[in-house]
Amino acid sequence: MRKLTRTLLLTALVAAAPAAFAQNTVTVGGQSMFPTRDIVDNAVNSAEHTTLVAAVKSAGLVETLKGKGPFTVFAPTDAAFGKLPPGTVDTLVKPENKATLTRVLTYHVVPGRYDFQALSKEIGKGNGRAELKTASGGKLSFVMNGPQNIRVMDEKGGSASISTYDVYQSNGVINVVDTVLMPR
Questions:
Q1: What is the pLDDT of residue 46?
Q2: How far apart are CA 121 and CA 130, in angstroms?
Q3: N- to C-terminal Cα separation, the chain
Q4: Keyword Glycoprotein: yes or no (predicted)?
Q5: DSSP assignment of 151-165, as one string?
Q6: What pTM was estimated for this model as a whole?
Q7: pLDDT value at position 34?
Q8: Distance (Å, whole) CA 80 – CA 161
Q9: pLDDT tens, position by position, 11-48
């Protein structure tokens, strides 16, 4: 009887584990983003980030973004890439433009872990505006846009809204943006 009780208890725990674990995930592009996976392993599953994933592969940044981190990635959706002038993405992924592509992609990466709370705190310290240095050496600016929304501005005067916050990864956090940010 004791063995049967223990077996039933273990079976119940195993069955309940996926539901409990799923509560700690965020859905992006129709797929769960698991906090135990790294940035790349999660991003490849998002139906909304196929262009970003292809660009990361083309630039040779897969191993970097699978690294220890922590990294914060402001991840443009496919729709964000679609806002660029026609032919821009096709031009950027050509081998001869690898350096430019790398600069654009690493401009979306900030060393450290900046979720909504951390970004809000930085904005508060900066009297309503924060600047963070990107992995490419540029700067992104952040301001509150209402009580629950942060706007990101690039060095060329463009801006993006963060549509999904706090997608935690084993090596950082992803914040989904609706516009490709461009370095100077």
A1: 86
A2: 9
A3: 71
A4: no
A5: EEE-TTS-EEEEEEE
A6: 0.83
A7: 65
A8: 11
A9: 443 443 343 334 456 766 566 666 788 889 888 888 89
Give the domain extent around 74: 27-177
pLDDT per residue as tens digits for the range 106-126: 999 999 999 999 999 999 998
Half-sphere exposure for 31 (CA within 13 Å, toward CB): 15
18 found inside a domain? no
**Phi/psi of residue 176, nearest 5 degrees:** -80, 130
Residue 135's Cα: distance from chain center in Å? 14
In a domain? residue 15 = no
Instruction: Tell me how far CA of residue 72 lies from CA of 69, 106, 109, 119, in angstroms.
Output: 9, 11, 6, 11
Whether 56 shows a pLDDT value over 50: the answer reads yes
Residue 132 reports pLDDT greater than 90 = yes
Q: Please check whether residue 12 lies inside any domain of the structure.
A: no
CA atoms within 13 A on the CB side of 69: 23
CB 112 within 8 A of CB 79: no
* The pairing of beta strand 172-177 with beta strand 71-76: parallel
In a domain, 10, yes or no: no
Q: Which bin fits 29, alpha (ψ -120 to 50), beta or left (φ > 0)?
A: left
Q: Which helix (H) or strand (E) holds 119?
A: helix 116-125
